[in-house]
TrEMBL record:
The keyword Hydrolase applies. Belongs to the type-B carboxylesterase/lipase family. This is Carboxylic ester hydrolase. Its EC number is 3.1.1.-. Pfam families: COesterase. Residues 3-479 form the Carboxylesterase type B domain. InterPro entries: AB_hydrolase_fold (IPR029058), CarbesteraseB (IPR002018), Carboxylesterase_B_AS (IPR019826), Type-B_Carboxylest/Lipase (IPR050309). It is an enzyme of class 3 (hydrolase). The keyword Hydrolase applies. Keywords: Hydrolase. Transmembrane segments: none annotated.
């Protein structure tokens, strides 16, 4: 079927319109510029997946698994659209992929199942600029270009999704990991206001936001790697830019340094949104002020967010090493390694040193930012919270990203197309997870809302679903300054 858009006509097949440009291709001349609209003559074929953002593997075992192996190129600012009916007016899901703001794509097989279209939701997955192209401060260029790309995509959706059978007034902005971080940041960006009616950050809230000072330090690191002045960064060849980007990412991930990375040291991801004209407040501060997007939100995490991350460490790590490794990461929170480890060891006496590392790092990066963001936003808008997976001893359970395959599960699909670490084995659980997401996107969840006074979460486990008090909420007290 051929659909006319504001950019040009596209030809899809069986309700799928793949790699549809929402902004112009990225080249040496506009690599660090604000996005501009795409346009084309004639009818563009949209029956095949196209290029993804250029990237190199980084961030240890988690980043390796998230790195796209698909063909990269210049024409990657695209959307993949699947619709149940081009003549309908269905709710819309706009999905932002994860990957530490440096790797990943919207074209991965796990996101191309058509699960939401099969549930009568128009689904849209977004490719955007990553790493230095998307998040490096470059003098004379706009900051947060990756987020500006997503805003451009949301604007395109607002103007065109009705032609694909979607309701532009019922758009849920969702994403996992860095995609969840991006959703939280976009909720605090004035330019994104009004472009979505619901928000769904998944395993990501607002962990790493760079100050202008910290962003300038990263600019200097990249300039030194490339051997050019900051003002000359736009002239760097793409291959050299990506190589320097990988070196900086690997360094930040393996060696957390607060002096070098600022607040980004908590996460170990250097390329993050930057405070400034386009993002005036940290998302958590904006939420506390009641200045995040006035939309309902569903948010949650897995039960063992840092389980896979811990595979990079020896299982017999001792407590002294745990303290040393955590010290620079907790410093931006006003904590010392000694203090936070002592508090967690007292609260979790059965945990081994590696279990304490998982608990503290997982709370720092994922659990507690999600809880704080949920509490703050719930003062002004309805919030629902979930927790995916069983909980085991020593902070084991469902690792980071484990629910993604379930979220995008479609009954009778070929699960062999899913990556091994996201492959669905429990189809009954997957159906319940997907149904929970659909209930938020298309209506009102059946479980109680989340507030600071009543922190109720929907537990999604292999043994069934239940509503209970958030098991991670009380651990926030361990981070209170003396």
């Amino acid at each position: 079927m051929i659909v006319q858009t504001t950019s040009g006509a596209v030809r899809g097949h069986a309700g799928a319109y793949l790699s549809v440009p929402y902004a112009a291709a990225v080249n040496a001349n506009n690599r660090f510029a604000a996005p501009t609209p795409a346009s084309w003559e004639g009818v563009r074929d949209a029956t095949q997946l196209g290029e993804v953002c250029p990237q190199l593997p980084t961030y240890g075992p988690v980043g390796q698994a998230a790195t796209s192996s698909l063909a990269a190129g210049a024409d990657f600012r695209t959307l993949n659209i699947r619709t149940p009916d081009e003549t309908g007016a269905a709710p819309v899901l706009v999905w932002i992929h994860g990957g530490g703001y440096a790797v990943g794509s919207a074209n991965e097989a796990v996101l191309q199942s058509g699960a939401f279209a099969a549930s009568n939701i128009v689904e849209v997955t977004v490719n955007y600029r990553l790493g230095a192209m998307g998040f490096l401060h470059v003098p004379g260029c706009p900051d947060n270009r990756g987020l500006l790309d997503i805003i451009s995509a949301l604007t395109w959706v607002r103007d065109n999704i009705a032609a694909f059978g979607g309701d532009p007034n019922r758009v849920t902005l969702a994403g996992r990991s860095a995609g969840g971080f991006a959703v939280a940041a976009l909720m605090a960006m004035p330019a994104a206001r009004g472009l979505f009616s619901r928000a769904l950050p998944q395993s990501g809230a607002a962990t790493a936001i760079a100050s202008a000072e910290d962003a300038a330090k990263l600019t200097q690191r990249m300039s030194q790697r490339l051997g050019v002045a900051p003002a000359q960064l736009p002239e760097a060849p793409l291959a050299a830019l990506l190589a320097a980007q990988r070196e900086v990412c690997n360094e930040s991930y393996a060696d957390h340094d607060t002096e070098r990375d600022g607040a980004a040291a908590m996460l170990g991801v250097p390329f993050v949104p930057i405070l400034g004209p386009s993002l005036p407040y940290h998302p958590l501060e904006a939420a506390e002020r009641g200045e995040t997007a006035p939309v309902p939100m569903m948010i949650g995490c897995t039960t063992a967010e840092y389980l896979t991350h811990s595979t990079a460490l020896p299982t017999d790590i001792d407590l002294t090493t745990v303290i040393q490794r955590l010290a620079p990461r907790v410093w931006p929170m006003g904590m010392t390694g000694d203090t936070i480890v002592a508090r967690y060891a007292k609260a979790l006496p059965q945990h081994s040193p590696i279990g304490l590392w998982r608990a503290i790092a997982g709370d720092l990066v994922f659990q507690h930012p999600a809880i704080r963001f949920a509490r703050a936003h719930a003062r002004y808008q309805p919030v629902w919270k979930y927790l995916y997976g069983a909980m085991g001893s020593d902070e084991t359970g469902a690792p980071h990203g484990a629910e993604l395959g379930a979220v995008w599960y479609r009954p009778n699909m070929d699960t062999a197309l899913q990556p091994p670490h996201q492959r669905v084995s429990d189809t009954a659980l997957a159906c319940r997870v997907h149904a929970a997401w659909v209930s938020f996107i298309a209506g009102t969840p059946s479980w109680p809302g989340y507030t600071a006074e009543s922190p109720q979460v929907l537990r999604l486990t292999p043994d069934g679903d239940c509503v209970e008090c958030d098991p991670f909420a009380t651990r926030i007290q361990l981070w209170e300054r003396e």
